[in-house]
Amino acid sequence: MTLILGLESSCDETAAALVDSDRRILAHRVAGQEADHAPYGGVVPEIAARAHVVRLAPIVAGVLKDAGVTLADIDAVAATAGPGLIGGVMVGLVTGKALAHAANKPLIAVNHLEGHALSPRLADPALEFPYLLLLVSGGHCQLLLVKGVGDYRRLATTIDDAAGEAFDKTAKLLGLGYPGGPAVERVARDGNRQAVPLPRPLVGSAEPHFSFAGLKSAVARAAASGAHSVPDLAASFQQAVVDCLVDRSRIALGACPEATAFVVAGGVAANGAIRDALTGLAARFDKPFVAPPLWLCTDNGAMIAWAGAERFAAGITDDLGVAARPRWPL
Ligand code: KG4
Ligand code: ZN
Fold this sequence. Notes:
Blueprint: E1 3-8, E2 13-20, E3 25-32, H1 34-37, H2 45-67, E4 76-82, H3 86-103, E5 107-111, H4 112-123, E6 131-136, E7 141-148, E8 151-156, H5 163-173, H6 180-188, H7 213-225, H8 230-255, E9 262-265, H9 272-284, E10 289-290, H10 294-297, H11 301-313
Helix pairs in contact: 2-3, 4-11, 5-6, 5-7, 5-8, 6-8, 7-8, 8-9
The structure holds 5'-O-[(R)-(carboxyoxy)(hydroxy)phosphoryl]adenosine and zinc ion (ZN).
């Protein structure tokens, strides 16, 4: 059994967790920064980085206290090394390096996307490689065949915006504020998802890629027309995203008969309408559907600790000279 400390600071969540190789989450803490960024309608990178400086060390001390352990008890320190907002990534990675050096433990530089990609295995011990993953977050929208730790085949990506970005931009133009995804989902409950005709970009195309920029512009035009209520706009937008995600995933599932399961991860996977639609799609392909619990879908330290545990078990560690990477495809 090994115990890993995981640190996450690549966007607007400051988080740390202690997770062991038996999938026990001994402690986890997350501090969001909604109040810091809300006045600007989106994440301001420098404000995020400064907030991580203030919050990360107390959060690390907090999870050690919650779990009743010290740095001497852990086996390695895992920290997000990218991709993400570089100032924040540097805060977490340098903190991880300092802790690893001080405790004389190995450092594991984790790709944030690998954190999302492997998090379903933390939640579900039965989930075996290879599985088809729909990774939908604020910065990414990809379909990946997850074949093993560090072993990914990317089937599709977005040609413009990520799905979460589309939610955030739509929320902003509908005056729903930040963070956008949960706000759109909430307002959509009171709307008619068929009220506003909106495009489904790339639906029907042979490659399972995504595109959301045109959808966002169409919502902007529909909103400007004044003909629709905000709940109808939100519900119709959400339904268009659902239809795109389902259609694109359908193509990928058809191309990957070897997949043991259909898995969704990333912040947008917290959306109930999206989860319901993807559950139905998996059933049509006779695949188990796996979605981590909501708190594990949005950014957190446990997914980084778990990716660290998987890499550690595979004998992969990094030296203290490892660089932070704003861009880092899986
Ligand atoms: O994975 P995540 O926490 O951070 C990134 O790595 O990007 O994802 C954040 C994204 C944001 O765009 C947020 O609006 C979206 O996930 N999101 C949602 C919901 N909750 C979070 N989108 C739709 N519905 C939700 N309930
Ligand atoms: Zn993320």
